[in-house]
Amino acid sequence: MAGGGCRDSHREGVRDVQAARSDAVGEGGAGGERERGALSPGGGALALDGVSRAYRGGAVIALHPTDLAVERGRFVAVMGPSGSGKSTLLQCAAGLDRPTSGRVRVEGVELGSLKEAALTRLRRERIGFVFQAHNLVPSLSVAENVALPLMLGGADEATTRRAAVALASVGLGDRADDRPTELSGGQQQRVAIARALVTDPAVVFADEPTGALDPSTAHDVLALLRQAVDHDGHTVVMVTHDPAAAAWCDEAVFLAEGRVVATLHRPDAERVHAVMRRLGRGAVAA
Ligand SMILES: Nc1ncnc2c1ncn2[C@@H]1O[C@H](COP(=O)(O)OP(=O)(O)OP(=O)(O)O)[C@@H](O)[C@H]1O
Questions:
Q1: Which residue is closest in CA terms to ligand 1's atom 18?
Q2: What range defines the domain where residue 30 resides?
Q3: Of the four, 104, 118, 170, 188, which is 20 to 30 A from 223 by CA?
Q4: Rg (alpha carbons) of the chain, rounded to whole number
Q5: Residues with Cβ within 6 A of ligand 1?
Q6: pLDDT for 32-87, tens place per residue?
Q7: Cα 198 from Cα 203, distance rounded (Å)
Q8: How many domains would you assign to the chain?
Q9: Pairing verdict, β 75-79 and 127-131
Q10: Helix 185-197 crosses helix 215-232 at what angle (to 10 degrees)?
């Protein structure tokens, strides 16, 4: 269960890097190059340990060595200006990209230790993805789209049943036989969420899941993700530019120039805006 019911008793405010590091490690913020997201002392669903990513032989450092731990049953926003390293962090954390240094663990399994086939299997079975462009397969029915991650491991009656349950959980149980194109943008994104949840993954990574939606539809999609966390114990890590979206989360982690520079516990849109303004242009959605 995410965050308990003490939202108002944890107004910690914005912390600078030094304070965030101290909170995370529970000690006096000794130096070093790493930046920590102060989310969980014990890890759980996801742990990044000194994860960095460089390009062009080190000429471009997209992500400096970063530590981040996300407990099970948490909803975490990753924010920051354009080019601050959000996608890089997400790609490394989700096993879509190999970090230049450091370790990523999903439920304690170190991704770097896996060969490509095992990593692919782990991504399919233990990680869910929701993208801005929901990537539904137009030639398949809604139910078949939801069942897709299960069908790659072989389709059977249980697969169909699980897909139906996932579809019902996003309120689209009656649209199982439709094609994705027969649904609205918001409904398609709900199908994508059902597909991400159907394997009961350790972590769902969402990259701007509401970026293409109007505010009201975005609200519904975020409420759905929140429900998946609160009611079903899912863990969601979401990249977003939108302070209103971040306000649905338990924590917001802010990146700037490839480093975690602030963490907000129980963020609200106003405080998120304040941090984003401080971080400068490109941080806030238009
Ligand atoms: N393949 C690559 N080769 C070289 N540089 C890259 C590559 N991918 C990303 N970068 C650089 O790494 C930095 C971080 O990029 P990243 O896409 O992670 O930022 P972001 O915060 O997700 O940005 P946005 O909000 O605009 O999507 C940027 O300076 C980017 O130009």
A1: 85
A2: 12-279
A3: 104
A4: 18
A5: 55-56, 60, 62, 80, 82-88
A6: 334 444 344 344 999 999 999 999 988 999 999 999 999 999 999 999 999 999 99
A7: 12
A8: 1
A9: unpaired
A10: 20
On the question of pLDDT at 155 being above 70, the answer is no
CATH number, domain with residue 222: 3.40.50.300
Decide if 5 is inside a domain: no
Query: The complex's ipTM?
Result: 0.98
What does the DSSP 8-state code read for residue 121? H
Q: Which of 109-118, 144-153, 276-285 has the highest mean pLDDT?
A: 109-118
Closest CA to 258 of 100, 103, 31, 86: 86
Q: In 3-state terms, what secondary structure has residue 50?
A: strand
Q: Report how far ligand 1's centroid is from the alpha carbon of 238 (Å).
A: 17
The rounded Å distance from CA 257 to ligand 1 centre is: 10
